[in-house]
Write a structure and sequence with these properties.
alpha/beta, 50% helix, Class II fructose-bisphosphate aldolase, binds zinc ion, 8-stranded parallel beta barrel, FBA_II
Amino acid sequence: MPLADPRPILAAARSGRYGVGAFNTTLLEHGEALVAGAEAAGAPLIMQVSENAVRYHGGLRPIALATLALAEAATVPVVVHLDHAEDVDLVHQAVDLGFTSVMYDGSKLPDEENRATTRRVVEHCHANGVAVEAELGEVGGKDGVHAPGVRTDPQDARRFCADTGVDSLAVAVGTSHAMASRDAVVDLDLVAAIAEAVPVPLVLHGSSGVDDATLSTVVTRGMTKVNIATHLNKVFTRAVRERLDADPKVMDARKYVAPARDAMAAEVERLLGVLGARGTAARQ
Ligand SMILES: [Zn+2]
């Protein structure tokens, strides 16, 4: 199926009060697992390549082409998204390669500069049919929306959307990145207040730190795109470790990566159910 535009997918989820899973891919097998899990759940999928993953691979093009090929071969709608790009040149590369979505992260910049740069990124992306996610910075300190104590102010979020024209907004409601345990306390009333105040779908970063019950609830309160990376990495790596422990003589990488890919696919399918997304691909 052709690469999907995230805007109608997120709009449908926002009005239907379910979540869209946005999961990171660093390895080819991650991407295969994400697509397999989304197909099993019958749900749309957002596959994310982060600026960190680009740095790991030494360039965007190889991981991008692999991810785009997986998306186009999928039987459910798949968006390929550049995650947390601080480098505007990298955003332009992603647009040129055919990504349908990018996150420009100017949260480390002074607030006015973040708004102005985000506005320019939006103009370039929209001219090329690409959707933009962004985040407010400075509101609660240098870690932007990702420090656990930081909270997004609903009216400031509303102004940020008006100033920049973004298609979705990452907000600070109690989560932080790369949490190893799922014990974040999400401010659900704030989620509802921001969802009421802003005209675009909201994005939860750091959702690996959120338990199943809260994930199910937060999407009913107005959160739409749910980013999960660390949790799936844990599932993948645990399966690799179990396989290697069980057979110390194994040499063929496929012998220990394939069970990890299967375990990750099963967890993706399960998480999409938790987000209420099962079967929603048919609504696109
Ligand atoms: Zn993030």
